[in-house]
Amino acid sequence: MTRFAAPGFTGSPLVRVDHERENQAWFDEQAMSLSARLLRLAGLTPAVEPDGTLGWGSLAEADPDVPLALLGLLDGKPRFVSLARIEEDSAQRSAAMNVALTQLQSEEAATYAIARGLVDWHSRHSFCARCGRTTQPFRSGWARLCDQATGGCGTEHFPRTDPVVIMLAEYEDRVLVGRQHRWPQGRYSALAGFVEVGESIEEAVARELHEEAGVIASNVRYVASQPWPFPSQLMIACIASAESPAINLDANEIEHAIWVDRAEVSAALRGDADAPFQAPPPYAIAHTLLSRWVTAEG
Amino acid sequence: MTRFAAPGFTGSPLVRVDHERENQAWFDEQAMSLSARLLRLAGLTPAVEPDGTLGWGSLAEADPDVPLALLGLLDGKPRFVSLARIEEDSAQRSAAMNVALTQLQSEEAATYAIARGLVDWHSRHSFCARCGRTTQPFRSGWARLCDQATGGCGTEHFPRTDPVVIMLAEYEDRVLVGRQHRWPQGRYSALAGFVEVGESIEEAVARELHEEAGVIASNVRYVASQPWPFPSQLMIACIASAESPAINLDANEIEHAIWVDRAEVSAALRGDADAPFQAPPPYAIAHTLLSRWVTAEG
């Protein structure tokens, strides 16, 4: 059995200690600990040490007017992040993403993904979607409460994670890759889309292939998953069998799509100059998906 | 290859026509169509015909003051649902669930899951989580807009789907099933928990098994998925390999857990009187998971 590289943003050594989150005394004790560490973030951009690890400071660096979340334990030390309100435009967000993707070691990027996802969720969810009142962090910063004590409706809100399917249609030893208008020239990747209300993973894969490429597919096989914290996706990578190689693109979604064989995908993954397309980068699960398809038995 | 029953709440023949949702003229045209049909719901409880199909009426039955969502097409006919505000307590919600689970044919239950999920999401998300103002349905009822034209922040909100992992730990041809306090006497099922921020499916499976049962597991294999519209979960069923049969239960989550072999699981799935536990019902993906494990090669 071939050993594969883990998907990007997985493998964080953070211990989440979920069962203690409701325990305010535990939170306070961790915050008083001399070993407590604060993740250094400027907006959503992480501080990165020269060795590609995340930068951590002491809790004394935190703005006392901003609530803290306790991410969990790393090396036995409690790890906090400030739940500052993020007011970044998409250019700043992309720059922060780029730092994480290019400068951090892979396990560090996974820890950053947790912190970023949590901070960003709080920042975008200050109000109760049910009653419109302001909410406050609780459960060690892993939820928000619309507090009845201050006139709220009592609803508890938890961070949102949006499942997304990303898939290769397969037909006679070739797979379908497509490109969007805004992508770098020559880049092709797996098609993708959000799982909708009342839909299984398998149904979402079949629906998206049909909608985006006119491909009728069945026999959906799960391959791998990764969190994608830009802002809050869970990427679920699959392969499905196409009935025919005919394609009918939704031009709003997909600019162009091509069927490629294993030699072509291998060339793209190696970055060969004469490869028929540019593969997605290694931290993207589409890369994992193509890599596993190439090495799987026909 | 054994053919398995599809997981509960999958297999709806509804055609979602996603690419037309933004097209208000298309929505209006469908609403004017003589073939347009309205799902009959009392709160969240579906009207059920004697043959186990959903009850549909004409759009004339809809409250004109309540916005409509266009679910999609069934038998070529546009299918609508009223986005009425639901004020049901948990007993009423359970009763509605029970109707769907016991009276509807399986494909009909899948269509109901879509409608219920959408109606319930709208009902619980009248306000913008970002700025607190009221939002309005748009995109044919598949999203809500915090409208800048009326002072909102412009954020578009889409229905939320929460990924949940549900899994069997496997050790030497036995799997771990556990029970919660509130379950019917004798009922055991797979353990489960929400996928968290910054976590893959595989990481969530390992974390939940460790937190709930003290089991160290790896080699996570995906088995199947289903939507679970009570209110908005995507259930992702997996099997993982346990390092040892030792268990250490989190008593807040799991009252009791047992390792069971294939003969015992088969007896439970058959409903044998002397089975060591009562299996989850067929519409639950835990049933699918146990069934597939029983018939898989050792």
Describe the protein in words.
The structure is a homodimer of 298-residue chains. Chain A is built from 6 helices and 15 strands. The first copy, chain A, has 298 residues and is of the alpha+beta class. The first copy, chain A, has 3 domains: 1-124, no CATH class; 125-159, no CATH class; 162-295, Nucleoside Triphosphate Pyrophosphohydrolase. In chain A, the strands form 4 sheets. In chain A, strands 10, 11, 12, 13, 14 and 15 form a 6-stranded mixed β-sheet that branches. In chain A, strands 4-1-6-5 form a 4-stranded mixed β-sheet, with helices on both faces. Chain A has a 3-stranded antiparallel β-sheet with strand order 7-8-9, with no helix packed on it. In chain A, strand 7 and strand 8 (143-145) form a beta hairpin. In chain A, helix 5 (262-270) packs across helix 6. The longest helix of chain A has 19 residues, at 106-124.
The chain pair with the largest interface is: A-B, 57 and 57 residues
Number of β-strand runs of chain A: 15
Describe the main β-sheet of chain A briefly: 6 strands, mixed
Number of helices of chain A: 6
CATH homologous group name of the largest domain in chain A: Nucleoside Triphosphate Pyrophosphohydrolase
Overall mean pLDDT of chain A stands at 95
Give the CATH level 1 class of the largest domain in chain A.
Alpha Beta
Count structural domains of chain A. 3
Class by alpha and beta content of chain A: alpha+beta
**Strand content bin of chain A:** 25-35%
CATH topology of the largest domain in chain A: Nucleoside Triphosphate Pyrophosphohydrolase
